[in-house]
Amino acid sequence: MSEFSFCKPIALLLSLVTICQGLSAQEKIVLWPDGAPGAMGTEEHDQPSLTAYLPPADRATRTAIVICPGGGYGHLAVGHEGEDIGKWLNSIGVAGFVLRYRLAPRYQHPSPMLDLQRGLRTVRSRAAEWKLDPTRIGVLGFSAGGHLASTAATHFDAGEATASDPIDRASCRPDFAILCYPVITFTEEAAMHRGSRNNLIGKEPSAELIQLLSNERQVKATTPPVFLWHTSEDKGVPPANSTLFYLACVHAGVPAELHIYEKGPHGIGLAKKHPGADQWPVQCEAWLRGRGLLKN
Q: What is the set of domains in the chain, with CATH numbers?
């Protein structure tokens, strides 16, 4: 056997290994390299970040989603509500950016909101680098992360045109939102997830702060299109949270789609083991496609 014929399969194997390594590698982006506003230290939990999951170039749609894992504003379910979601989005050609935001008891409002807003600005300002469309930057959140995502959809600005930091010049308004068994209300006692409220705004918040972050009360005509899903069996965060937000969208003239599945407990992520609810990724993909967000 010639040296060439022996080396060729070895070179091919090494090439395939390199490609696979490249696809599995994720980039971590610290949102404020010089320190987040209000940071109380320099440990990892003081430094909000994004982890990028980029689809193969031949499948990329130029759409991106910032992913907010849940955890009651006290911890982050970055596995089944973060990493798994980034990989699923890649399978449909969407770039996923898993947000690690600041948490109680060290941090309360507005830190998580500022972290997500900065994440959206970062992805939008670097869209050309990642071959993204800056008008196709959405947000997706689960449970308390769904509350955070709904906060981004109802509390946003166009950026500061004269800011010295180019990231701050970008808008933090998501172009669409996907809310998965979200915490929404801080006013409706029967539907409220008190743990999330206590962690985010304290046990004795002002009436103004309660209203501000009861996001069903903050929907306006400029809120972006929304896809929501929940289950009837959810005892952790009652499905009334999703229906309240959906009805607020309808009242404000915001395009919205709501799915409530009969079976399934709280916190099921992609719901692969829960027939019925396991259709939400399929229906969400159809919703994205119908909005023209999965075109190359």
A: 34-290 (3.40.50.1820)
